[in-house]
UniProtKB/TrEMBL annotation:
Pfam family, one: Glyco_trans_1_4
This protein's name: D-inositol 3-phosphate glycosyltransferase
PANTHER family the UniProt entry points to: D-INOSITOL 3-PHOSPHATE GLYCOSYLTRANSFERASE, GLYCOSYLTRANSFERASE
Annotated source species: Streptomyces telluris
Domain of life: Bacteria
Keywords of this entry: Glycosyltransferase, Transferase
Glycosyltransferase in keyword set: yes
């Protein structure tokens, strides 16, 4: 195996998020295989999270300060105020320092690969000289999500010039190919842990994993859980993650009469152990690409109930075999699906066994092998 110089680049690589965790997982895996790896964040995180206790890769952050909130002048005078002009000049100087720092890091090697973690990072990279390196662009969300933001145009503008554009599912890659993106390919995100244990599925706990923010639509999950447990009050709901909607969700649980059975667990370092506490994992988001919570739960034998949100979700949850998919936004159907799994121990066991087998190709060594094959293809 050729030992390579690998740069993994993201806008913010240290916040508690799925795409950030993927970058750290890949960086560690590549480094443990003998590659020279540097994980580069353009901006520092306002709330940094330590993903690994002993990273084997180099870590660099280009800016000294987190991104500032978006600002718009309400008047012409405000736009030209001395304070605003000084702030804009300081921001330009900081941006140039960051780009010069990255250019020096790239220039320190003769060849290598740059894995670009988002289309925004690809846009920022345009002003940096790195023509002696080869680029791979990642996108961690679905094609549908790209269409609802600026990401679609950024991908179509910047990714064709790269060696490869990597998406998480074949349906998403196919949609980008239809938009004449010539270099689209598929590589799934790896599991961040080796699934050595297995959930017992007898704890009477439903779990959800993710930030407590609007896009996760945990209000729907509370409603569905309340309906599903009307006849099964011994069940609990455990929410793993922090976020701005915690108090609002607590109030909703109180209104629904389930506050005593809803547990807000916050951020948890050992998510493998947390999944093993659960009997069902639920996902009620507004939109998702290929959510790692479904893959991680499945790897530990926990069946999932999810809205049918994307090709990536359908690849992770095989309806009627490893879990249950319901129409997006249909809280009543979601409650019925939860209730069915809650009431049937044998069904949970059957789905959990099938789920564990289904996601076994997502273990880190297998995914790293696919990355190595991609590097070899690019070199040819």
């Amino acid at each position: 195996m050729k030992r390579r110089n690998l740069f993994l680049l993201g806008i913010d690589v240290d916040s508690m998020g799925g795409s950030q965790r993927v970058l750290h997982t890949l960086a560690q895996g590549f480094a443990e295989r003998g590659h020279r790896v540097e994980l580069i964040g353009i901006r520092p995180s306002p709330e940094p999270h330590a993903f690994l206790d002993a990273p084997a890769y180099r870590r660099t952050t280009l800016y000294r300060t987190p991104a500032r909130p978006a600002w718009r002048a309400v008047s012409f005078a405000e736009r030209l105020s001395p304070e605003r002009l000084r702030a804009a000049r300081a921001e330009r100087q900081e941006r140039e320092r960051a780009r010069e720092r990255l250019a020096r890091r790239f220039a320190a090697v003769r060849d290598g690969m740059v894995v670009i973690g988002s289309p925004w990072a690809a846009a920022w990279l345009q002003a940096v000289e790195w023509s002696h390196l080869k680029g791979i662009g990642q996108y961690h969300e679905s094609f549908h999500q790209a269409c609802t933001s600026e990401n679609l145009q950024l991908i179509l503008r910047h990714y064709p010039a790269l060696e490869k554009a990597v998406f998480l599912s074949e349906p998403d890659a196919a949609e980008f190919r239809r938009r004449r993106l010539p270099n689209a390919t598929v590589l799934p995100n790896p599991l961040p842990f080796a699934p050595t244990g297995r959930a017992s599925l007898d704890t009477r706990r439903v779990g959800a994993v993710g930030r407590l923010e609007a896009v996760k639509r945990l209000d729907r999950l509370l409603d569905a859980f309340a309906a599903a447990t009307a006849a099964q009050p011994e069940w609990e709901l455990h929410l793993f993650g922090d976020g701005p909607l915690e108090q609002e969700l607590r109030a909703r649980a109180e209104t629904l009469g389930i506050a005593g059975r809803v547990h807000f667990r916050g951020s948890v370092r050992d998510m493998a152990a947390a999944y093993c506490e659960l009997s069902v994992v639920a996902l009620t988001s507004e939109r998702e690409g290929r959510p790692m919570a479904l893959a991680e739960a499945s790897a530990l034998g926990v069946p999932c109930v999810s809205f049918d949100l994307s090709g990536g979700v359908r690849e992770l949850v095989r309806h009627g075999r490893t879990g249950t998919l319901v129409p997006p936004g249909d809280t009543g159907a979601f409650a019925d699906a939860l209730g069915e799994l809650m009431a049937d121990d044998a069904l949970r066991e059957r789905y959990g066994c099938a789920a564990r087998e289904h996601v076994s190709p997502l273990q880190l060594p297998a995914v790293l092998d696919r990355w190595e094959a991609l590097f070899e293809e690019i070199d040819r």
